[in-house]
Amino acid sequence: MYRHIQALQQVSRRTLSTSALRQVENKVPHKQKHFQEDNGIPIHLKGGASDAILYRATMALTILGSAYVIYELVCAAFPKKKE
């Protein structure tokens, strides 16, 4: 049992001590500057091509889903007659 606790302490100590070595550049100020620019592009499309693709996919799924709901409501409102 003691070996497990000692191993856990060693792993946590190693994780804490090596995390300071891998510092990452702070990109937040650059992103803030990019998204606060007044260039006529809507905020939900300022991320580039991936944002445009996600936006169009969301709109397509919304339209298709709405059409399917309307179709199902019409089918439920006018059931097929049994012969």
Task: Write a concise keyword list for the protein shown above.
single chain; 83 residues; mainly alpha; 3 helices; flat; oxidoreductase
Task: Describe the secondary structure blueprint for this structure.
Layout: H1 2-19, H2 28-36, H3 49-77
Give an overview in words:
Helix content is 67%, strand content 0%. The chain has a domain at 42-82. The relative contact order is 0.05. It has helices spanning 2-19, 28-36, 49-77. It is mainly α.
Helical percentage: 55-70%
CA-CA gap between termini: 76 Å
The share of residues in extended strands comes to under 5%
Average pLDDT reading: 85
Contiguous runs where pLDDT drops below 50 for at least 5 residues: none
Instruction: Give the count of helical stretches.
Output: 3
Over the alpha carbons, how many angstroms does the gyration radius reach?
A: 27 Å
Q: Determine the structural class based on helices, strands and strand pairing.
A: mainly alpha
Number of strands: 0
Structural shape: flat
Query: Quick one: biggest sheet?
Result: none
Organism: Hucho hucho (huchen)
GO molecular function, one term: oxidoreductase activity
InterPro entries: COX7a, Cyt_c_oxidase_su7a_sf, Cytc_oxidase_su7a_met
Membrane topology: Single-pass membrane protein
